[in-house]
């Protein structure tokens, strides 16, 4: 009996230990290791992974568009991530609270599933939280490259993270770390520069801004997101997106391995060192092989050699895009993509087919379970790291961060530092500098399509994917005309018109002290912006000619890239490259009127004609109109 008792009580102790270690019920409370924030992240990942069924794993790898993300769909497919495609908003003028409600509903659905794994909601906050009404819209990356100011760029990252979090969003598909080598590419304004080093400098600044600072002891390649005031970032588009033939979006990048590593790869290394949470793959190919199926670069270089431990995501519908000959079937595209090392698939609409296909292939052994486990571990690692399990819901206290005065001041600072002064008087009439302009002029002319249009001033990826013209679209903001009006003396008369043939423009040249001509490109993104001639769109050239022949003129060019200006340069008294400045037009007036000096430097080579393209800083034959790094300076005006 004693023996039996002894035997039984020893067994009971043993059983208790086993049960406790396995995380089962102890004293009535269920201990679940992955839910314990005190546990190391890797242990939580492994514990959760060990509990997951195949459909739950595939769900984690699936990112769908918000239009499809009903509670029923999230629950049925165990969806791991939801995105807003460009311009996909809950309603046109949705408030931060409306965004938060939408995400809360999705999150509740995700948390109601068996294992309660939160979704990660992603958006393209690429120059501020640019889909959200009343968000602060910062200059696009090309303008930030012109500032040469990494501290500023870091502060912009921090502000963008806060504005995304204000709408309940914890993940942005930014930064674009492309090294744009040919401005004919429609995505060129998303690139900080043609110069690898400058892109690296800005990458190393904006990622800590978005995600928070990694400590010097942070293990290389492990993702880092510093809590609910930061967001998970995404370095994109891996790799060589800015090097395609003729700058055609998604085209082939023909380069030796050495040149790919030298020109396009370094920013990814910096991103990995800064603990970037994810990397998005490029639609483009490298030497004929689609990047989405390039196992060598994704798995061997990025994951193994660089030790990247975050997750790799596809671009929008990219799996569909590789279903072209010689791939006869979608099935092969999925298989090759996942085998190449993709962890999360941005499959906005066709998720039922995708999920069924992956499951069937796993069952047949065509997709290895190890690969699925690796993908899911990476996604879970990011979710645990950023505290999504502990704080899955939008933080209401951050609502007021959308479009704050501080962020608008920051954007204004960025605008004034991004403007590049290309000509200031020299070679024309008396040759005297034209800038800074006088605030005390009697009468001035402001003219051009881009002078009073917030939509044009912001460019693509603003409220919609392609961007659009119009003053109401962004909510708050200041056009260049409005900024000029508030900068000049109250007594100064301003005539404004889009075109000198319209409105009441005086033909008497003595009537105006000077004219500010604001013209440029119309908004675009990606393929729609691919452009083989890079001329100033009409009626820009005609407006420049007519106005600059009449009166002393400053031309402000609003564009995502250098345009062909040489034919008109002689007629202009001054020329300013303003890039795509965003909502804070005051920054333009700040430097035009000398409250601050011009300091921006070209982040790109300014070619004379498109025949010269591609032409980049460091090329043997280098004969630009303005070289990389060029930018005249002015001192703040003395108003004493
Ligand atoms: C696009 C872009 C990519 C973006 C994604 C999601 O097609 O190439 O930069 O993040 O779709 O909107």
How would you characterize this protein structure?
With 640 residues, the protein is of the alpha/beta class. The chain has two domains: 44-401, Glycoside hydrolase, family 3, N-terminal domain (TIM Barrel, Alpha-Beta Barrel); 419-612, Rossmann fold (3-Layer(aba) Sandwich). The chain is 35% helix and 11% strand. The protein is built from 21 helices and 19 strands. It has helices spanning 2-21, 41-51, 54-60, 71-77, 96-111, 141-147, 150-166, 196-211, 257-264, 266-273, 295-305, 318-321, 330-340, 351-364, 369-385, 405-418, 454-458, 480-487, 540-550, 566-569, 586-592; strands spanning 25-26, 29-30, 62-65, 81-83, 120-123, 171-172, 234-238, 252-253, 278-281, 285-286, 289-290, 311-313, 345-346, 420-424, 443-447, 493-497, 514-520, 553-558, 574-577. The strands form five sheets. A six-stranded mixed sheet has the order 14-19-18-17-15-16, sandwiched between helices. It has a five-stranded parallel sheet with strand order 6-5-4-3-13. Helix 5 links the parallel strand 4 and strand 5 (120-123). Helix 2 (41-51) packs across helix 15 (369-385). It is globular and about 85 Å long. It starts with a helix and ends in a 48-residue tail after the last helix. The protein binds alpha-D-glucopyranose. Alpha-D-glucopyranose binds at residues 85-86, 124, 173, 236, 315-316, 526.
């Amino acid at each position: 009996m004693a023996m039996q008792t002894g035997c039984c009580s020893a067994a009971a102790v043993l059983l208790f230990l086993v049960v406790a270690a396995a995380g089962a019920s102890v004293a009535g409370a269920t201990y679940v290791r992955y839910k314990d924030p005190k546990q190391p992240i890797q242990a939580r990942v492994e514990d959760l992974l060990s509990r997951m069924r195949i459909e739950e794993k595939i769900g984690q790898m699936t990112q769908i568009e918000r239009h499809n993300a009903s509670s029923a769909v999230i629950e049925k497919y165990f969806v791991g991530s939801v995105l807003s495609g460009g311009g996909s908003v809950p309603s046109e003028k949705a408030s931060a609270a409306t965004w938060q409600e939408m995400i809360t509903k999705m999150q509740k659905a995700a948390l109601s599933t068996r294992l309660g794994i939160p979704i990660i909601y992603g958006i393209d906050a690429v120059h501020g939280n640019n889909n959200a009404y009343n968000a602060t819209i910062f200059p696009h990356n090309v303008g930030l490259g012109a500032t040469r100011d990494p501290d500023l760029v870091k502060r912009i990252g921090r502000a963008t993270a806060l504005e995304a979090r204000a709408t309940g969003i914890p993940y942005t598909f930014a930064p674009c770390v492309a090294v744009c080598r040919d401005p004919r590419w429609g995505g060129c304004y998303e690139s900080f520069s043609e110069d690898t080093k400058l892109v690296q400098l800005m990458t190393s600044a904006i990622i800590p801004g978005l995600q928070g600072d990694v400590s010097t002891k942070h293990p290389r390649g492990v993702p880092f997101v510093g809590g609910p005031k930061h967001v998970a970032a995404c370095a994109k588009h891996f790799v060589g997106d800015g090097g395609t033939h003729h700058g055609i979006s998604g085209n082939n990048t023909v380069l030796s391995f050495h040149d790919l590593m030298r020109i396009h790869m370094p920013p990814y290394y910096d991103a990995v060192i800064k603990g970037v949470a994810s990397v998005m793959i490029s639609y483009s190919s490298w030497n004929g092989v689609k990047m989405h199926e390039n196992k060598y670069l994704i798995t061997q270089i990025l994951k193994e050699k660089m030790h990247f431990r975050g997750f790799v995501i596809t671009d929008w519908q990219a799996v569909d895009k590789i279903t072209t000959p010689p791939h006869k079937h979608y099935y092969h595209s999925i298989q090759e993509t996942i085998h190449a090392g993709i962890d999360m698939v941005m499959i906005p609409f066709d998720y039922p087919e995708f999920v069924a296909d992956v499951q069937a292939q796993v069952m047949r052994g065509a997709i290895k379970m190890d690969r699925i486990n690796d993908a899911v571990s990476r996604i879970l690692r990011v979710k645990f790291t950023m505290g999504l399990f502990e704080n899955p819901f939008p933080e209401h206290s951050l609502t007021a961060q959308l479009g704050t005065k501080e962020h608008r001041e920051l954007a204004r600072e960025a605008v004034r530092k991004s403007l590049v002064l290309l000509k200031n008087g020299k070679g024309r009439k008396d040759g005297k500098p034209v800038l800074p302009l006088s605030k005390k002029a009697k009468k001035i002319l402001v003219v051009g399509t881009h002078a009073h249009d917030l939509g044009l001033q912001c460019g693509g990826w603003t409220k919609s994917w392609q961007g659009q013209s119009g003053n109401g679209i962004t909510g708050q903001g200041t056009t260049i005309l409005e900024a000029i009006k508030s900068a000049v003396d109250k007594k100064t008369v301003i005539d404004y018109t889009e075109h000198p043939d319209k409105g009441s423009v005086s033909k008497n040249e003595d009537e105006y002290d000077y004219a500010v001509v604001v013209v440029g490109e119309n908004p675009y993104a990606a393929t729609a912006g691919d452009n083989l001639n890079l001329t100033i769109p009409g009626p820009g050239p005609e407006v420049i000619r007519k106005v600059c022949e009449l009166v002393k003129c400053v031309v402000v060019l609003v564009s995502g890239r250098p345009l062909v200006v040489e034919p008109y340069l002689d007629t202009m008294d001054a020329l300013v490259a303003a890039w795509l400045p965003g909502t804070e037009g005051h920054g333009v007036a700040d430097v035009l009127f000398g409250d601050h000096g011009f300091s921006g430097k070209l982040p790109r080579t300014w070619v004379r004609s498109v025949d010269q393209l591609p032409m980049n800083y460091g090329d043997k034959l280098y004969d630009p109109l303005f070289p990389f790094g060029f930018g005249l300076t002015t001192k703040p005006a003395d108003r004493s």
